[in-house]
Amino acid sequence: MPDTKAGRADLLNDTPGRNYAAKLRRFNEFARPELLAAIASLRLQQGMHILDAGCGTGEAVQWLQDAINGVGVVAGLDLATAHVEAAREVVRRDALIVQADLSRPPFLPAVFDLVWCVNTIGHLRHPEDGLTALSSLLKRGGRVALGQSSFLPDMFFAWDSRLERVTDEAVREYYRKRYGIDERDLLKNRGLVALLQQAGLRDVTARTWVIERMAPLSQADERYIFEAIFRDTWGARLKPYMSSDDFESLSRLCDPTHPDFALRRRDFHFLQTFTLVVGSL
Question: How far is CA 21 from CA 56, 83, 137, 164, in A?
């Protein structure tokens, strides 16, 4: 994945061999109502040609197909081999799933009515280059829809905002040390409105949905929060970046065998945001 500027093209060491399909699948299952609402807000029509850039495990490709009633073309693109294989198992046979770098998409220019790209553009060290490549695929009047979760800090422990804050700080410090990225890189995906405007796209709009969950949680909700966040994102990796008392408190709340397990509390209340920023060519 060569870079046209100094350093790597991606922020998070994404490669064709990297595999976080399980986490992507859990998020799509968890946030399905809000993602479907975001797709519905685009008022897609039969006959459209749509690309899901960074399609992951393919659930959104299927939802986009449903939105055009299966009349038209929906393609998915992802860098990772495991994600492409997973997507091909999910989507209908008439969907095209290709393995490629979204900065060098293997499509002719001006062929798509919509490029849908969720939680992906922020993985690039130079997202403006990725957006330029994706915009080149649009027909005149076509749209780019960039989706991003967690523009605002997620709320996990409504009863302990201080512990949430130190946990967020530990996550950021982990990413700084693990991937060699600074605060500006970590937060640059908050500037999607400016990104689309600076790329010359017109009629830029933004809309945010709140993903809100309360106890008792559904299986999909508990699976995502516990497995994707408590275990895979937090866990032992945060220990070097927290005080021993704070890490012990966090560990108790994240341990399903402990009486203090957060997801069993009657007052558990979770908030996350999903924002869709759309611009037209």
Answer: 7, 6, 26, 26
Domain assignment present for 200: yes
Range of the domain at 69: 21-280
Task: Please report which residue ranges of the chain form alpha helices under DSSP H.
Answer: 21-30, 32-41, 59-67, 81-90, 127-135, 161-179, 183-187, 192-198, 219-223, 244-253
Whether the upstream peptide bond of residue 259 has omega within 30° of 0, thus cis, is no
Q: Which amino acid is at 2?
A: P
5 part of a folded domain: no
Q: Which amino acid is at 43?
A: R
Instruction: Read off the CATH number of the domain in which 134 is found.
Output: 3.40.50.150
**10 belongs to a structural domain:** no
Per-residue pLDDT of 232-275, as tens digits, reads 999 999 999 999 999 999 999 999 999 999 999 999 999 999 99
Cα–Cα distance for residue pair 182/199, rounded to 1 Å: 24
Overall pTM > 0.85: yes
pLDDT band at 189 (very low <50, low <70, confident <90, very high): confident
Rounded to 5°, angle at Cα 254 from 250 and 257: 125
Look at residue 30 and tell me if it is in a domain. yes
Number of domains making up the chain? 1
Cβ–Cβ < 8 Å for 134, 53: yes
